[in-house]
Amino acid sequence: MDWRCEWCGKPHEENDPPCDNCGHSSFEKAVVRQGPDAGSGPETTRVWVCTECDRTHTKHSPPCSRCGNHKLVMEEQRVEDDELDVPSYFDLLTPKYALGLVVVLGLATVFLLGITGIVDVPGFGTSVPDVEDVPGSATTAGNASLDDLEASYISALNDRRTEGGGEKLSRAEELDEIATYVTRQNVKAEYGDASRPSADRVNSLLDERCDGEGAIDLLTRSGNETATAEELGVGFALESPTGPEGATDVGVATHTAPDGTIYLTVIVC
């Protein structure tokens, strides 16, 4: 735009008064800054100020939007370049906000470590660790299926409980997961390079699932290539405690070590 209204400052394509905005009959040549200083230094803008309440308006359009006064006067305002600068995020990072950011990042780190099971955090104890590369077999013991062995064991254990006047136990997937962790970690510690299961972690898992009323036991039997799954299950059941009297759930996991020894973990709660 090459022309602007002398009264309200509205830009126009041509020097062709009156002004479309305020009706003023005189235009002036718009100033375009040239040379190396162009684009730097203070900018000038025109505003209209109410003579009663000092409310500023971008156009000469009485009455005043605040008090209703019909007299507005033009004033020029200069805006320095540094007033137009937008602060960076680092400018806003005061010591108070920096401390808050550190606290939030710390809590987020603890949260991630807790849900992944790397550290023990209250409220995240139910994350059962995975145990990989365990020596031996997780499926068979000689010619017998370990799944069938576990089913036979639970059946024989329930027979012992009912004979003593107790209730039958229902197999619980969550308890199976804890038993699997304990069994595999023990086999890997005995025949590999791992350590025994963490007592704190196991107790935390049991407390979360069994409310402190659970019982856990690890049993082993020497391998027998000709024994059936039922014979192995009954044999384990005869050696196993029947668990708390008011128990309702059971979890079982078995694993055959490289030398044929069968490891069985039972959890009752």
Any overview of this molecule?
- The protein is of the alpha+beta class and 269 residues long.
- The protein folds into three domains: 3-84, no CATH class; 86-124, no CATH class; 140-268, Pathogenesis-related Protein p14a, CATH 3.40.33.
- Helix content is 33%, strand content 20%.
- The chain is built from seven helices and twelve strands.
- The chain has helices spanning 81-84, 89-92, 95-115, 146-163, 173-191, 199-210, 229-239, and strands at 3-5, 11-12, 27-29, 43-50, 56-57, 72-79, 140-141, 144-145, 170-171, 215-221, 249-256, 262-268.
- Strands 9-11-12-10 form a four-stranded mixed beta sheet. A three-stranded antiparallel beta sheet has the order 2-1-3, with no helix packed on it.
- The longest helix has 21 residues, at 95-115.
- The radius of gyration is 41 Å and the shape is rod-shaped.
